[in-house]
Specification:
heterodimer, A: alpha/beta, Rossmann fold, Arc Repressor Mutant, subunit A, 2 domains, 4-stranded antiparallel β-sheet, 12 strands, B: alpha+beta, Helix Hairpins, Heat Shock Protein 90, 5-stranded antiparallel β-sheet, 5-stranded mixed β-sheet, 51% helix, 21% strand
C-alpha cells in the first residue's frame, strides 16, 4: 500500500519511513506543504499521514485539498498541537484518525490496520491460537465452541493488540500506550500490564494451555503464531 | 465590620456622648443664665431707684424716717429703701429669705448702700427665686428638643454623605475584589470618583491585576509552548528507539537497555503531556457538554483501575447512597480526576489495605469521598500537595513525578468542584469532592 508522509521534522519523517517500509508499505516523504500539494495532485495514495504544523501550509487546508484529488485515501493527522478544536475540525473534515505526538509507531501501525479492516470490510478475522479461536470482529475467544466470557474488555484488547503485532515483542510501554493512552496520570510505570497478563493466563489455562502467549524476559510480551 | 457601619457607629456614639454631656450641664447652664439675667434686672431696678432719688430727692420715698417698701401683689418682687445704721457698705447680690406677712419666701436680693445728705440708706431690690426658676423648666425642654432634632438631622446628613462619599469604595470592592477570580482578563472599567484616594486605589488595584494577569498569561503561554516544542523531539526519539527494537541484529541484552531508555523517555513524555493537559484545561480548551451519572463514572474508573488493586491485595468498596446525574461536564476530564485520586489511594496504600468510595448527599451538598488506609499526609505538608512537582517525602520512592494532584486540582477548578482533604499520618487520607449545584442535572 502507498503511503504519503507529510512531516516537516525530517528526523521523524525518516523514522516513520523506516518503520512503515518494514511493514511492507511503500512510502513517499514530503517535508513541506507545497511539495505535498503537488504530490497529491499527481499520485493516488492509500494512506496520507499529515502533520498539521507545517511551516508553509495550513495543515487543515492541505487536508481539504488532498481530499479532492485523493478522496479514497485514508487520512491520519499527526500533530503536536493537541488542541481539541483542531482535533474535532480535522475529524470533521474527513480525517480517519488523529494521533497526538509523541505517539508510538506500533500505535500508528495498529490504527492503520484498523482503518484498512474498516475500509475493506475484512470479515473472516479469526485467528487460531493453540486450542483457542480468537474472533477479532466479534471480540470473542472460544475454546471448542465455548465462549470464554471471563475475559474482560481490557484483556481482550491486550490479546488483540499482541495478535496484530504477532511474533514481535511488544513492550509494556507500547501495550500501556495502546490500552491506557487516553488516561493522564503521573505514573510512568506500567507494571500493571503484568497483572493483566497474569489474569489472562489464569483464565485461559483453565481450558487449555496458552503457551503461545510468551513473556520476553525484561522486554515485554509476544504472541507466537507459527503457521 | 464595614467601613460605613463603623463611621455610622462613631458618628452616632460621639453625638450621643455630646448630647448626654450637654443635657447633664443644661440645668446648671440655664440656672447661670437665669441668674445673670435676674442680676441685670436687679441692677437696672437699682439704677432706676437711684435716678429717682437723685431727681426727686429721697423724700419721694422716705418721709419722717419711715422706711419704704413696695411689693407686687403676688410678692414675687419687692423694693425696699431704709435708713441704715451699719458701718459697712453693702453692694451685693445674693439669695436670702425674707418674711413677707405670713410667708417666708426666698429671694434673689440686691443690697446697696448709698448716702444722701450724709445719711446712709440701704436699698434692697428682690425677685423671688420661684419666679426666677419658673422659666428654667420650659427653657430646658426647648433646648433639649432642639438639640435632639439637630442631632437626628446631623446623623441623617452624616449617613447620607458618608454613603455618597464611600460609594466609589464600595463599587471598587464589589467590582474589582469580591468574587473576582484571578485571572479575570476583564476589561478595566474606571470607577468614577472625585476622591483622589479612591482614584489611586482603583488605579493601583487595576495595575496589580494587570501585572498578575500578564504574568499568568506568560506562564500559561510558556508551558503550552514548551510542552509543544518538547513533543517533537520526544516523538523522534521514541520512533528511533522503536525502530531499533524491530531490528533482528540487535541482541536482547541491548534491547533491555533500550527499554530502560524508553522508560525514561516515557517519563518525559508523561510529564510533557500532563503539563500540556493542565495548560489546556487552564486555557479553557475543553468543552463541558457531557452528561454522566456519578455511579457510571465511578464504575468506569473501577473498570480501568481494578487491575492495580491486585498488587497490594487492596480491598475496594464503592457505596453510592445517592446517585445523581452530572451535566455540563467533560467526561474525559472527570474520569481523569477520579482516576488520579483512586490511583493515589492505591499507590500510597499499605499491603492488604482498603479503599472506600462514597457518593452521597451531605447537607444539600453532592459529595464523593475517597478514603484510603495509606501512608497519610503530614499536617505541615497538606498545604502543598496540589503544587506542581511537589513530591512529599513519603512519595519519593513511588513512580510518580508530582503532577497527579495538580491535574486533579486543575480539573476540579475547571468544573467548580471543591476539594477538601483530611489526612492522618500512617492512618490514611480522605479526599472529599463537593460538586457545585450547577453540575447537578
Amino acid at each position: 500500500m502507498n503511503v504519503l508522509i507529510i512531516e516537516d521534522e525530517r528526523a521523524l519523517a525518516r523514522e516513520l519511513e523506516i518503520f512503515l517500509t518494514n511493514y511492507n508499505y511503500i512510502c513517499e516523504v514530503c517535508y513541506d506543504g507545497t511539495s505535498a500539494s503537488e504530490r497529491v495532485a499527481v499520485n493516488l495514495y492509500d494512506f496520507i499521514l499529515i502533520d498539521l504544523g507545517l511551516p508553509d501550509y495550513e495543515g487543515l487546508d492541505l487536508l481539504k485539498e488532498a481530499k479532492r484529488s485523493n478522496p479514497d485515501a485514508a487520512y491520519i493527522i499527526l500533530t503536536a498541537r493537541a488542541e481539541i478544536y483542531d482535533r474535532i475540525k480535522g475529524l470533521d473534515m474527513g480525517a480517519d484518525d488523529y494521533l497526538a505526538k509523541p505517539f508510538s509507531l506500533l500505535e500508528l501501525q495498529s490504527r492503520m490496520q484498523a482503518i484498512t479492516r474498516r475500509k475493506f470490510g475484512l470479515k473472516n478475522n479469526v485467528v487460531e491460537l493453540g486450542d483457542f479461536l480468537v474472533n477479532l470482529t466479534e471480540r470473542t475467544i472460544t475454546h471448542k465452541n465455548d465462549i470464554i466470557s471471563a475475559i474482560t474488555k481490557k484483556e481482550f484488547d491486550l490479546v488483540a493488540y499482541l495478535i496484530l503485532n504477532k511474533n514481535r515483542t511488544v513492550t509494556r510501554n507500547q501495550l500501556s500506550e495502546h490500552i491506557w493512552g487516553s488516561i493522564i496520570n503521573d505514573d510512568y510505570d506500567s507494571n500493571y500490564i503484568d497483572a493483566h497478563i497474569k489474569n489472562i493466563r489464569k483464565k485461559l489455562n483453565a481450558y487449555a494451555s496458552a503457551d503461545w502467549l510468551e513473556t520476553v524476559r525484561g522486554l515485554g510480551y509476544k504472541i507466537r503464531i507459527t503457521h | 465590620m464595614k467601613l460605613r457601619t463603623k463611621l455610622t457607629w462613631f458618628n452616632t456614639i460621639s453625638k450621643l456622648v455630646i448630647v448626654t454631656l450637654f443635657v447633664l450641664l443644661l440645668p446648671e447652664l440655664i440656672k447661670n443664665i437665669n441668674q445673670n439675667y435676674t442680676d441685670n434686672r436687679l441692677r437696672k431696678q437699682k439704677d432706676k431707684v437711684l435716678q429717682t432719688v437723685k431727681a426727686l430727692g429721697i423724700k419721694n420715698y422716705i418721709q419722717d424716717g419711715q422706711g419704704y417698701a413696695a411689693y407686687t401683689p403676688i410678692k414675687d418682687a419687692y423694693v425696699s429703701l431704709d435708713e441704715d445704721s451699719l458701718i459697712e457698705n453693702l453692694d451685693t447680690i445674693q439669695n436670702e429669705q425674707r418674711k413677707v406677712e405670713t410667708d417666708t419666701i426666698e429671694y434673689r436680693i440686691l443690697s446697696h448702700n448709698f448716702y444722701v445728705d450724709k445719711k446712709k440708706y440701704l436699698l434692697e431690690v428682690g425677685i423671688s427665686l420661684d419666679s426666677v426658676n419658673e422659666t428654667t423648666g420650659p427653657l430646658q425642654n426647648i433646648a433639649f428638643e432642639i438639640l435632639v432634632g439637630m442631632i437626628i438631622l446631623t446623623i441623617i446628613a452624616d449617613q447620607l454623605y458618608s454613603n455618597y462619599v464611600l460609594a466609589p469604595l464600595r463599587l471598587i470592592i464589589k467590582t474589582k475584589l469580591v468574587g473576582t477570580k484571578f485571572p479575570n482578563f476583564g476589561s478595566y472599567k474606571e470607577v468614577k470618583t472625585s476622591t483622589d484616594d479612591f482614584q489611586q486605589l482603583d488605579l493601583s488595584i487595576h495595575q496589580m491585576i494587570q501585572t498578575i494577569e500578564s504574568t499568568f498569561l506568560k506562564e500559561r503561554e510558556f508551558i503550552s509552548n514548551a510542552s509543544h516544542e518538547l513533543m517533537t523531539p520526544i516523538s523522534i526519539l521514541q520512533s528511533k528507539i522503536e525502530n531499533m527494537f524491530e531490528e533482528e541484529s540487535i541482541a536482547d541484552e541491548l534491547k533491555v537497555r533500550m527499554l530502560e531508555m524508553q522508560k525514561i523517555l516515557n517519563r518525559l513524555k508523561s510529564i510533557t503531556k500532563t503539563l500540556l493537559l493542565i495548560s489546556q484545561i487552564e486555557n479553557d480548551q475543553f468543552l463541558k457538554e457531557d452528561k454522566i451519572t456519578i455511579s457510571e463514572l465511578l464504575q468506569e474508573v473501577y473498570d480501568e483501575i481494578s487491575i492495580r488493586l491486585q498488587d497490594k491485595n487492596i480491598s475496594y468498596e464503592c457505596i453510592v447512597t445517592d446517585d445523581w446525574c452530572l451535566i455540563n461536564v467533560n467526561k474525559f476530564l472527570l474520569f481523569n480526576l477520579i482516576f488520579n485520586l483512586v490511583n493515589n489511594a492505591i499507590k500510597y496504600n499499605r499491603e492488604d489495605g482498603s479503599i472506600k468510595i462514597q457518593a452521597l448527599k451531605e447537607n444539600n451538598d453532592y459529595v464523593v469521598k475517597i478514603t484510603d488506609t495509606g501512608v497519610g499526609i503530614a499536617p505541615e505538608d497538606l498545604p502543598f500537595i496540589f503544587n506542581r512537582f511537589k513530591k512529599l517525602r513519603q512519595s519519593l520512592q513511588q513512580d510518580s513525578f508530582g503532577l497527579g494532584l495538580p491535574i486533579v486540582k486543575s480539573i476540579a477548578e475547571f468544573h467548580h468542584i471543591k476539594i477538601e482533604v483530611q489526612s492522618e499520618k500512617n492512618v490514611g487520607s480522605t479526599f472529599k469532592l463537593i460538586f457545585s449545584t450547577g453540575l447537578i442535572g
